[in-house]
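INFO  loader      accepted 1 record
INFO  loader      residues=177
INFO  predictor   begin
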Amino acid sequence: MYAYEIWKEVRDLAIKEMPLEEKHDKLLDQYMLSELMNYALHKELGTMDKRNDMMLKVWKKMLPSLMGITLKVMKTIAPGTTFKKIVNGFVSFSQVMNPLSNIELTWVSDREAVMRTKNCPFLVRGKELAKKAGLDIDPKEICRNDSKVMPEMFEEFGIDVTMELEENGCRATAKLK
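INFO  predictor   done
INFO  writer      dumping tokens
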């Protein structure tokens, strides 16, 4: 009789829509795990420079289309407006991993902005996820590495970027040249 009751419970399970927040959390964990595996593999193979070169090549190509405007043309005509579009686009894109409530954007001037991320899920949950997956890697390593690539990516658009890790987050300062 016990097996029949289990079967009946399984048969009567209703498939329900997963709440949006749960979907986001599951997708974010999957994305973070992919990033952790990618980084760990390149580190193990000694191909970190090739990873960084590829990342830079792809982001330089994709950044204009992700921002939705022809940035290279606009930066010569209206550099301040272009700078603001790029910074706002970066903040918008950052919401893929961070809720907007974790992101603080401060406009120092029309040529300088500071974005601070607090309680970054990649740093907060990523360490536990790496441990659970058996990867001997600290997500801060990835952030430190990527903070070397990002300035070169934005340099193409006439923007100097510096990044500093903070506890469970980071601070990026962007300045229009």
